[in-house]
């Protein structure tokens, strides 16, 4: 057996060995012996030059193809020689050369590693394959520089080397989501050959990062009464995690009050906070909204921020008028400056819009005094008079300084309580009444009326009768009259007799029910009007027991001579006392006559002898009343001789000369007095 050793990959015709030499045979002999080379394989890698005895390479020899990973590789040849037939075994060892670099299965490999993988975790990499053997095969691996991984090469008993990545430093996907490494496989040839594989490591996200707002707090400013849907602020939070771990949902924190949740709403997807309720500066000037951002990882991680919303005031509130103290009833004698009400004003707006001014109408007897900021006192400015104005509606107007200003009007009803400051007043300063005498008892003669502008008890009037000054002390009006204490009706207690009393004067006093009571008086004049209730009374000549007056005349009496004068008096007055005298019967009609007014009885002609010696006259005295009253006297005229006649005539003359003038004067004075009193009464009544 002959053994040769040649490296693989020799070119065709490369020298392997000299068989003639090695067999110790002449070359010519080998050629004559018909030398043949027989191979055990299908391929004919070698050939022999029979002329030279040299074995040469006839085909490319690839040791890795022939022997794979066997450490030793042999090709066996047989040499056949004829004459005689001999066989020689030739063994050609194919020596490995470093003609193959280590080869990875692929140029790139991807790994997915959880970012929370524990330190020391190992991640195998498919090894490189080097068909060379011995020192020319894969000897080592090299890992590119990095911060997180080291290389560990695991050797197996069969000599295989398997690379492993060992995690030496914790991964942070948010810091570096991908790691790019290069693993180099190197054999031991000279020069060594190598190959590389790119390792892409994708760090798988773990929910290890909470959402982060781009600002720790947000600020916004809104006008109160902003319409619903107004955008307050758009929040922005980011989560460096990915997938559900980085998917953020926004919500109002549970720390917010229920009232705030009714005012603001947040879109969980976009983070937009919008107005959904009424914004009122007067209820809150600043809202602090706590917002949370949550990711969708498991477990969920969240972050919080605050949104400060400042509300800008607008003049949307009218001033408020609050009565701290108020008396709806005020005594009419309250002096100027009396406090009626204490008013507190406020405006829920701010700044100039919250400043309030108050005023009342200058036409009212009230004024406002500013005590201090936001408080006024309503005072009386002048004297009050309930009888002139009993009730006031005082309008207090409060206006703010906004633009446009808002105002509010409050009406304060004030009634004046009565004070007994007004005395009763009669409708007339005096009353004049004509009352016919013989009036019935209880008849109303006159009604006096007074009025008191005060009210209630102060206006309740009571009437009474008082004696008037200057009147006859013996003439007590209360004897004849009574007055109803409330109606003022003056009634007669007794009938009047003109012949006894022609005039009555008295005071009626009225007093109110106040305390102290106020009084007033009026003067009442009662004129008694005469009635024709008295018949005339004949005073002269005096009638005898037979109701006849005897007169004596001389037969020679001259015509028109005064025989006598009938004197009558009527206690009535005026027309009722106007008397007339009439001869209604005579024994000798036409012989005597009576003066109509004076009552003088005269003879109308001279007596004749044929005339009777005694004449009887019926003289009727009649007044002018309606109906008229009368009385009669019978005159008996006796015609006698001179002696008795002279006596009777002198008596008649004496009577006529002494008594008649006095009676006449009395009658004249009475008529004048009555006429004067009546005239004065009529004038006063007319006034």
Automatic annotation (TrEMBL):
The chain crosses the membrane at residues 663-685. CDD domains: Cadherin_repeat (cd11304). One of its GO terms (molecular function) is calcium ion binding. The keyword Transmembrane applies. Pfam families: Cadherin, Cadherin_2. The keyword Transmembrane helix applies. GO terms for biological process: homophilic cell adhesion via plasma membrane adhesion molecules. Keywords: Calcium, Cell adhesion, Cell membrane, Glycoprotein, Membrane, Repeat, Signal, Transmembrane, Transmembrane helix. Residues 5-104, 105-213, 214-321, 322-426, 427-538, 545-663 form the Cadherin domain. GO terms for cellular component: plasma membrane. It is found in: Cell membrane. SMART domains: CA. It is a single-pass type I membrane protein. InterPro entries: Cadherin-like_dom, Cadherin-like_sf, Cadherin_CS, Cadherin_N, Protocadherin/Cadherin-CA. Its main location: membrane. PANTHER family: CADHERIN-87A, PROTOCADHERIN GAMMA SUBFAMILY C, 4. This is Protocadherin gamma-C3. It comes from Eubucco bourcierii (red-headed barbet).
């Amino acid at each position: 057996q002959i053994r040769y050793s040649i490296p693989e990959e020799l070119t065709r015709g490369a020298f392997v060995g000299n068989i003639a030499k090695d067999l110790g045979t002449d070359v010519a002999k080998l050629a004559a012996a018909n030398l043949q080379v027989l191979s055990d394989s299908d391929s004919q890698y070698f050939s022999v030059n029979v002329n030279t005895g040299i074995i040469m390479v006839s085909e490319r020899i690839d040791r890795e193809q022939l022997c794979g990973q066997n450490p030793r590789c042999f090709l066996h040849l047989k040499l056949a020689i004829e004459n005689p037939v001999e066989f020689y075994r030739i063994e050609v060892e194919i020596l490995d050369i470093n003609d193959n670099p280590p080869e990875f299965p692929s140029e790139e490999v991807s790994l997915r590693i959880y970012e929370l993988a524990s330190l020391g975790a190992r991640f195998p990499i498919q090894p490189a394959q080097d068909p060379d053997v011995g020192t020319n095969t894969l000897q080592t691996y090299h890992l590119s520089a990095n911060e997180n991984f080291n290389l560990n090469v695991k050797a197996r008993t069969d000599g295989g080397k398997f690379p492993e990545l060992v995690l030496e430093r914790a991964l942070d996907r948010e810091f570096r989501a991908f790691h790019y490494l290069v693993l180099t496989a190197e054999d031991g040839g000279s020069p060594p050959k190598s190959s590389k594989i790119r390792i892409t490591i994708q760090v798988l996200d773990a929910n290890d990062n909470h959402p982060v707002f781009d600002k720790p707090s947000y600020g916004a400013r809104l006008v109160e009464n902003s319409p619903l849907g107004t955008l307050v602020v758009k929040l922005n939070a980011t989560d460096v995690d990915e997938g559900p771990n980085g998917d953020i949902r926004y919500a109002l924190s549970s720390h917010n009050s229920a009232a705030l949740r009714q005012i603001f709403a947040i879109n969980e997807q976009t983070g937009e906070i919008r107005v959904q309720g009424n914004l009122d500066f007067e209820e809150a000037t600043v809202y602090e909204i706590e917002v949370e951002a949550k990711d969708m990882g498991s477990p969920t991680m969240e972050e919080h921020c605050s949104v400060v919303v400042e509300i800008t005031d607008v003049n949307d509130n009218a001033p408020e008028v609050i009565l701290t103290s108020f008396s709806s009833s005020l005594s009419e004698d309250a002096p100027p400056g009396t406090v009626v009400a204490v008013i507190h004003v406020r405006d829920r707006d701010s700044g100039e819009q919250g400043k309030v001014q108050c005023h009342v109408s200058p036409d009212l007897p009230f004024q406002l005094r500013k005590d201090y900021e936001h408080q006024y006192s309503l005072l009386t400015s002048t004297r009050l008079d309930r009888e002139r104005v009993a009730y006031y509606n005082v309008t207090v107007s409060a206006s703010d300084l906004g633009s446009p200003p808002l105002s509010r009007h409050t009406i304060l009803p004030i009634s004046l309580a009565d004070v007994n400051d007004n005395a009763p007043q009669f409708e007339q300063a005096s009353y004049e009444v004509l009352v016919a005498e013989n009036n019935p008892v209880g008849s109303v003669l006159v009604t006096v009326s007074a009025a008191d502008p005060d009210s209630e008890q102060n206006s309740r009037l009571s009437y009474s009768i008082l004696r008037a000054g200057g009147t006859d002390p013996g003439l007590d009006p209360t004897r004849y009259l009574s007055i109803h204490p409330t109606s003022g009706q003056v009634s007669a207690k007794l009938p009047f007799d003109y012949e006894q009393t022609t005039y009555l004067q008295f005071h009626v006093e009225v007093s109110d029910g106040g305390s102290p009571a106020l009084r007033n008086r009026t003067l009442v004049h009662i004129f008694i009007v005469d009635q024709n209730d008295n018949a005339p009374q004949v005073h002269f000549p005096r009638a005898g027991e037979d109701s006849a007056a005897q007169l004596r005349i001389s037969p020679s009496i001259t015509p028109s001579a005064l025989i006598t004068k009938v004197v009558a008096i009527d206690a009535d007055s005026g027309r009722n006392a106007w008397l007339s005298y009439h001869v209604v019967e005579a024994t000798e009609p036409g012989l005597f006559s009576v003066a109509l007014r004076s009552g003088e009885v005269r003879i109308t002609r001279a007596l004749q002898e044929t005339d009777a010696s005694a004449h009887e006259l019926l003289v009727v005295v009649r007044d002018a009343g309606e109906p008229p009253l009368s009385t009669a006297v019978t005159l008996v005229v006796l015609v006698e001789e001179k002696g008795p006649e002279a006596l009777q005539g002198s008596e008649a003359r004496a009577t006529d000369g002494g008594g008649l003038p006095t009676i006449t004067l009395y009658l004249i004075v009475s008529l004048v007095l009555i006429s004067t009193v009546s005239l004065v009464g009529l004038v006063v009544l007319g006034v």
